[in-house]
Design brief:
The structure is a homodimer.
Chain A: H1 6-29, H2 35-41, H3 46-49, H4 56-79, H5 85-102, H6 104-111, H7 125-145, H8 160-173, H9 179-200, H10 212-226
Chain A binds a DNA duplex through residues 2, 5-7, 11, 32, 34-37, 44-48, 50-51, 55-56.
DNA sequence: ACGAAACGAGAGCAGTGCTCTTGACTCGAT
DNA sequence: ATCGAGTCAAGAGCACTGCTCTCGTTTCGT
């Protein structure tokens, strides 16, 4: 059978070996990592790498997909922990942040500036949505189970254009939650990644240095109250 | 006098011309713009550009400083508008967003992923702080004038390590405001740039498309209430 | 008017992504 | 066991990059 042939196995191993080396290079070179340097480190010639990834962008795509999946899995397992909704929310947030801190270059690759000239293929959108799906499910479950207790009494009503667009997107995001809760969830979503991005991209330098984890935790608790925890 | 010599004037003009071309290239090539391409577009040879910028990184630094100053100026003039504190807050936020939308590559350069291998020199920190200074002054003025009415009754107390670090940083950021207000201001600060970053980096694609301005406005109003407007 | 400094142009070096060709290897089917 | 097809690593080569150095020329301050 072809899938177990020597060639297929070697190909599989070499493919992940290339990705591993490329991810190590990502830390120092960022998105413009050198395919030739990867090949050099693996003791092969650059043209050989093209047997495994038809272009540098395809290698980047493979890395991006892997990173999205890793972060998504980290978020999923954290959110699946047993405990109160608040505990699960905090576990989720810290899981995302921990992964980002441990893989700064990878986080920059998937959540930082878009790589110029790179067009993300369709294969990336599903892995990219994993963490967002966790969050949406968290909101939906919390709402139907009653764990999220929010009163939207003094919420500013969204302008009609925004509301219709949100209603339109609701079925594919988080069905059966009210628009005000979705808006608050979006605030929390943006805040979560906003804090991480600011932290990793140096916005807290010479300002918040030793208590960044505490700051993140505080912001996540503020957002927890925002979504009704 | 040397500052009025032909050479000095030509040098001044060519310097800004190089920066202008480089910024145009920024849109298509991002942070890895080509010094040679810039030179080519200006009809000179690549080595000539090195008379004006000793390295590509120095050219990037010049662009970064210019961008910080432009955005800072946009924020300053917007915040100086006459009106209620809420109006000034909204004007500030939209000014930042408008500048970012009009200069997407430039925004990515200063607020996106750190350029690998690039170390920002000291000259950049003051321009970088301009928008933040506007915001800090806004908080301080609003607090002393009583325009910001916040009750911190059910605010979660920050952990002591975070509080001491914030107290330590308070004098250089926004003197004479209480820590709870500073924390809420940080939330608003992060949210402002978080929404813009998500919008520009494609996080809203296939989700919020035509009502992005309304969404941003809504988030800014949520944050306005957060800081007591 | 003269020496110094600044300047543009060109050649050159090492590196890059990518293509094409060449020869060796492995595979599945006969 | 053999043989054609597909796969592989290697190398040469193209156009590009940042950067350095040298070489005449121009401009400056004195």
């Amino acid at each position: 059978m072809s899938s177990n042939s020597i060639r297929a196995r070697v190909r599989q191993e070499l493919t992940s070996e290339i990705k591993a080396v490329a991810r190590r290079q990502l830390a120092t070179e960022g998105a413009n990592l050198s395919l030739r340097a990867v090949a050099r480190e693996l003791g092969m010639v650059s043209s050989a790498v093209y047997r495994y990834f038809p272009s540098r962008d395809d290698l980047l795509t493979a890395l991006i997909i892997d990173c999205y999946n890793e972060m998504g899995e980290a978020g999923e397992t954290a959110a699946a922990v047993t405990g109160t909704a608040l505990e699960r929310w905090l576990a989720f947030g810290h899981a995302i942040r921990d992964w980002a801190l441990a893989h700064q270059a990878e986080y920059a690759l998937i959540y930082g500036s878009p790589v110029p000239g790179y067009r993300a293929p369709r294969d990336t959108v599903e892995p990219a949505a994993r963490t967002t799906v966790v969050l949406a499910r968290f909101l939906a479950d919390g709402y139907t189970s009653g764990e999220l207790r929010v009163t939207y009494a003094d919420d500013a009503a969204p302008p009609p254009e925004l509301e219709t667009e949100l209603v339109q997107a609701l079925p594919v995001i988080a069905p059966d939650i009210p628009i005000p809760l979705l808006l608050r969830g979006l605030t929390a979503w943006i805040q979560l990644y906003g804090v991480i991005t600011f932290e990793l991209f140096g916005r807290f330098n010479n300002f918040i240095e030793s208590s960044r984890r505490e700051f993140f935790d505080h912001q996540m608790r503020v957002m927890a109250r925002e979504i009704g925890l």
